């Protein structure tokens, strides 16, 4: 099993969610996060003064999937979240050693 973590622009969430549903994803965790990458944030003007906003609002998706679904999940996220502009986000894939469904005690892929 793998956990696919995707950091995307907030307005792309519905498109990404729909694309993931099409490849068979039935559940995910969505978190509102803030951060910055290579650009280091963005400049904004407030009451005539320019300042840098260090942390840009993003949405983080956590999806645990069987190994055979990883590539289709990555492709769905990449295609639906892409705008072609700076700040489209990142996708990370992390190994998952174990998963347990608390209610039933199911383990491994049965738990996801």
Automatic annotation (TrEMBL):
This is P-II family nitrogen regulator. Homotrimer. The keyword Cell membrane does not apply. It comes from the Bacteria. One of its GO terms (cellular component) is cytosol. Pfam families: P-II. The modification O-UMP-tyrosine is found at residue 51. Belongs to the P(II) protein family. InterPro entries: N-reg_PII, N-reg_PII-like_a/b, N-reg_PII/ATP_PRibTrfase_C, N-reg_PII_CS, N-reg_PII_urydylation_site. Keywords: Nucleotide-binding, Phosphoprotein, Transcription, Transcription regulation.
């Amino acid at each position: 099993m793998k956990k696919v973590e995707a950091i995307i622009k907030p307005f792309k969430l519905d498109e990404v969610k729909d694309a993931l549903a099409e490849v068979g994803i039935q559940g995910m965790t969505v978190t509102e996060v803030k951060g910055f990458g290579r650009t280091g944030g963005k400049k904004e003007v407030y009451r005539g003064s320019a300042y840098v906003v260090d942390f840009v609002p993003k949405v983080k998706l956590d999806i645990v999937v069987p190994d055979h679904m990883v590539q289709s999940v990555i492709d769905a996220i990449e295609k639906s979240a892409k705008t072609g502009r700076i700040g489209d986000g990142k996708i990370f894939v992390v190994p998952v050693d174990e998963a347990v469904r608390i209610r039933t005690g199911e383990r491994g892929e049965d738990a996801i």
